[in-house]
Amino acid sequence: MSYQMFFELSLGLKKNLHAPRGTLKGITSHVAEVEAALGFKTERCKPNPARWNLRVKDGVSDETLCEIAEMHNNWVRGLYADFAKWYKNPVADGEVITPAQAQKFWRGMARIIVPPQRWTGDYYQCRMEELYAVMREHSTADTAFGAPPLTVRQAREVIILFSEFLDREDIRLDVPVGYDHLRPGDDYCWCSKCGAIAEEDVAGRLRRCRKRGGCDLRENYGDDYKD
Ligand SMILES: [Zn+2]
Fold first, then answer.
1. Distance 154 CA to ligand 1 centre (A)
2. Which end of the chain, N or C, is less packed with Cβ atoms under 10 Å?
3. Can you tell me the mean pLDDT for 78-101?
4. Distance 220 CA to ligand 1 centre (A)
5. Average model confidence (pLDDT) across the chain
C-alpha cells in the first residue's frame, strides 16, 4: 500500500467501498474482541472521530498484550491494503460499506503501541526484524528509511547498540556471518574472532578457521563436531 493511500484513509472512508460479503461483520467482531481483551475505552472529543484510549486494563499479561498487539497490527495493515485493493477493483456481488458505517469501527483501525517495558522476547525479535528490514530497505513495511540503505554490518551494529535497552529477555539477536537477517542466540554460535556463526555453518567454519590464538568455536563446540 502506498503512503498516499494510508494518508487518504487515515480518518475514514471517503466513499462507498465494495467489499466481499461478511467484511463489515468481521471487522466489527475483531474490534469488539480487542476491546474486550485489553479493556480499551472509546473517547470522543467532538468534532474529532471517536478513538481508542490505549490504556490496557489491569490483569493483562505482557504475553497476552504483545500477542494481541501483533495480531491486531498485522490485521490493520492487511485491512488498509484490502481497502486500497477494493477501491481499485470493487468486489462485484459483495457488500457495500458506507463512510457512515466505517465511522462506527474506525477507532479500531489504530495500531496498538506496546511500551518496551512490556515487550516479550518474541515481540522484541519481530520489532527488530522489521527495523532491520527498514534499514536494509528490503521491506514492504509501512515505515520508510529516510536515508540510503545501511550495509548488513551497519544495520547489525544499530540493532546491537539498542539491544542494551530493549533486549529484556536477553535473546541476543545478531546477523550470522554470510547472512542478511537477524537470528536469536539459540541459532548461532559465537566466536570472538569470527563473530556469530550460524549453527549449520559451524562444522565448516571449524575446518577452515585459522584465526590466531585458535577459534573459540573449536574450544567451545569442537567436541560436538568431531569427524
Ligand atoms: Zn573463529
1. 21
2. C
3. 94
4. 10
5. 89
Q: How far apart are CA 173 and CA 40, in angstroms?
A: 32
CA of 193 to the centre of ligand 1 (A): 5
Residue 35 DSSP SS3: helix
Three-state secondary-structure class, residue 18: strand
CA of 29 to the centre of ligand 1 (A): 54
Contact 215, 209 (CB under 8 A): yes
Q: pLDDT digit string (tens) for 131-182? A: 999 999 875 556 778 888 999 999 999 999 999 999 999 999 999 999 999 9
Domain boundaries, the chain: 3-115, 119-173, 174-227
Instruction: Identify residue 8 by its one-letter amino acid code.
Output: E
CA distances from 112 to 43, 68, 92, 99 (A): 15, 9, 33, 23
